[in-house]
Amino acid sequence: MLLFRTSLILVLLMFVSTFVHASTFKVHPLRFQFDGEKKSDVLKLTNTSDNAVTVQLESVKWAQDSAGNDLYEPTQDIIFFPKIVTLEKDQQRIVRIGYRGEPALKHEKFYRLFAQELPGQGQKQGALNFSFRFSMPIFIKAKQQQPKHKITRTSVRNGAIHVTMENTGNSHYLVKKIFAVAQDQSQTDLSTVETSGWYILPGVERTFTIPLQEADCRAAKQYLLAVQAGKKTLHSQTSIDAEQCKAIARKKTQVAGP
C-alpha cells in the first residue's frame, strides 16, 4: 500500500479564522466532523482573485508514523461532487461531501480533503507562480470519544527546549501552542518564547521544539511550560544550566564562519 508524505506545495492552514484567505480563493469550513447521524456536509469555494480559478479536490486517508509525521493514502471512503470546480471572479460554488465508510466504533477515523489550485490564465508565463492548496481534516467520531493526552518528557539540548506529547486516547487532539517562560534563580519571569503545535493522532508520540535565545538561556535556571492541547492546558517545567546554552553560541559561530 503506497504511503506518501505531505507535498511541498504550499499548504495554508489557520485555526483562528472561520475563513482562510489565499491569493486566489478561499474555503469554508476548515474542518469536517461526521458521526453516526451526520454523514454529509458542504464545502464553499470562493474566488478572491481577478481571474478565473480552477480547483481540483482530492480525499485521502490520514495517519501518522511513530514520530508524528503525517502519512496519506488513497481512499474511496470520502465522496464529493464536483471534483473539479472553475470559479469566475467573485464567484462562490458549493461542493457536497459525504462519508460512506464503515462506522467508527472504538477508534476515531481520520481523512483529509485537499483543494488544489490548477494552473490557469491568472498565472503569468515566465513569472514565479504559486499554486495554493488547502488541507482540511475530516474526523469520523468514535461511538465513545475518550481523549487522553499527556506530556511524556521535556529536555533542553542543542539550544532548544524539546517537549514530547503522547496521545493515549481513541481520538485526535490538537496542540495549539506551547509557551516556555524563562525564570531566574529567584523565580522571576525573564521572557516567554512559544511555538505552534499540530494534530496528534491516537497512539502517536510527537516532539515539539522551541528554539532559545542565548541571553535568556544563560540567565534562566528553569523554564515553565504551558501546552494548550485540546480543551486543556498542560503544565510542566525543565531545568537548565549554562552548559546547555553553549549550543546556541556554537550555532551562531557556524553561521558567521567563512
Written overview of the protein:
The chain has two domains: 20-140, Sandwich (Immunoglobulin-like); 149-256, Immunoglobulin-like (Sandwich). It has two helices and 19 strands. The protein has helices at residues 214-219, 242-256, and strands at residues 20-21, 25-28, 32-34, 40-47, 53-64, 70-74, 78-81, 84-87, 92-99, 109-118, 133-140, 149-157, 160-167, 173-183, 189-196, 199-200, 205-211, 222-229, 232-239. The strands form four sheets. Strands 3, 5, 6, 8, 10 and 11 form a six-stranded mixed sheet that branches. The protein has a five-stranded antiparallel sheet with strand order 1-2-4-9-7, with no helix packed on it.
Structural class: mainly beta
> At the first level of CATH, what is the class of the largest domain?
Mainly Beta
Low-confidence stretches: 1-22, 254-258
Gap between N and C termini, in Å? Answer: 47 Å
| Count of discrete domains | 2
Average pLDDT for all residues: 85
Give the fraction of residues assigned to helices: under 10%
What is the ordering of alpha helices and beta strands?
EEEEEEEEEEEEEEEEEHEEH
Main beta sheet: 6 strands, mixed
Count of distinct strands: 19
Question: How much strand?
Answer: over 45%
Principal-axes shape call: globular
So how many helices? 2
Characteristic terms for this protein:
single chain, 258 residues, mainly beta, Immunoglobulin-like, 2 domains, five-stranded antiparallel β-sheet, 19 strands, 50% strand
